[in-house]
Amino acid sequence: MTQPTEPQDAARRRLLMLAAAGNLAHLATPALAQAVDAAALARTLSPDREKRLLEGARKEGEVSLYTSLTAEEIAGLAAAFEKKYGVKLKTWRASSEKILQRTVTEARSSRFEADVIETNGPELEALYRERLLLPFASPHAPDLLPQALRTHGHWVGTRVNMFVHAYNTQLVKKEELPRSYADLVHPRWKGRLGIEAEDEDWFAMVIRGLGEDTGLKLFREIARVNGFSVRKGHTLLAGLVGSGEVPMALTVYSHGADKLKAKGAPLEWFAMAPAVGRANGVGIPR
Q: Cβ neighbours of residue 62 under 8 Å, at least 6 residues apart?
């Protein structure tokens, strides 16, 4: 896997955040304008589309966003959005699992708080299958990778989180790093491995890459011999690697590891095959 340099990665993430800010303005639906057909407006690419959306959003005064972005990223996104459109960005931040749970619960009780949902691809796909997202079109679609566009048109990918393995450089020597998942059976990793509690998508793709029977047998053996420290939250897990509480973690986001490293944490990351990336995206609640 080709690893981007830190400046390239930072620049790419800034561009994606600004693109997402533009998408939010185009996606915000003026709920108070009862005469507007929100579903039709979300699909139109008419020349006056942005004007109509902005007029409605400015009447409401804010756009409500449910998101899994970090607090630091939300601050940058909100500042860029509010400067460009003059509309306040109201955010509720939580894990992708909690965003899915809250959106479903609110829909069932006929409570509609969110204008836009930004979170992990699997949870957005679950919301689509629950028939809780509107299909929409965007003038920004041609600027995105073809893989970012779902055939059903109910959500679109805006960024990719890369799962990597992070280790504390003061506790793990570079020469002892595993070259494959099979190397994690070695007794040197006993009590030294961490993993995020709800990365089912990462695990499914790794097992698929290794072969289902082989992969499941291997991870059961790693768990039996060396165990896993199971933690909730990728930011937390990366921080525990940096502090030394977890010497090596299997499921850290590359950008999270880079941020800690830039702040001086004794942390590096690498990736074993199969390397896994997961799309995050945006959708409009129905």
A: 87, 88, 89, 90
Distance between CA atoms of residues 188 and 190, nearest Å: 6
Cis peptide before 122 (omega within 30 of 0): no
Write the single-letter amino acid at 38: A
Whether residue 178 contacts residue 187, with contact meaning beta carbons closer than 8 Å, is answered with no
Main-chain dihedrals φ then ψ at residue 191, nearest 5 degrees: 70, 15
Long-range pairs, 112-115, Cβ under 8 A, ≥24: 112/31, 112/285, 113/64, 113/66, 114/64, 114/65, 114/66, 114/285, 115/27, 115/28, 115/29, 115/31, 115/63, 115/64, 115/65, 115/284, 115/285
Query: Distance of CA 250 to CAs 4, 27, 31, 97, 202, Å?
Result: 19, 36, 43, 20, 10
pTM: 0.77
Distance of alpha carbon 52 from alpha carbon 26, whole angstroms: 10
> Rg of the chain's alpha carbons, rounded to an integer?
21
CA distances in angstroms from 107 to 96, 110, 114, listed in the order given: 17, 5, 10
List per-residue pLDDT tens for the chain, 286 residues long: 444 444 445 545 554 454 454 555 444 444 444 446 778 888 889 999 889 989 989 998 999 999 999 888 899 999 999 999 999 999 999 999 999 999 999 999 999 899 999 999 999 999 999 999 999 999 888 999 898 999 999 999 999 999 999 999 999 999 999 999 999 999 999 999 999 998 999 999 999 999 999 999 999 999 999 999 999 999 999 999 999 999 999 999 999 999 999 999 999 999 999 999 999 999 999 8
Shortest CA distance to 78 belongs to which of 92, 99, 97, 98?
Answer: 92
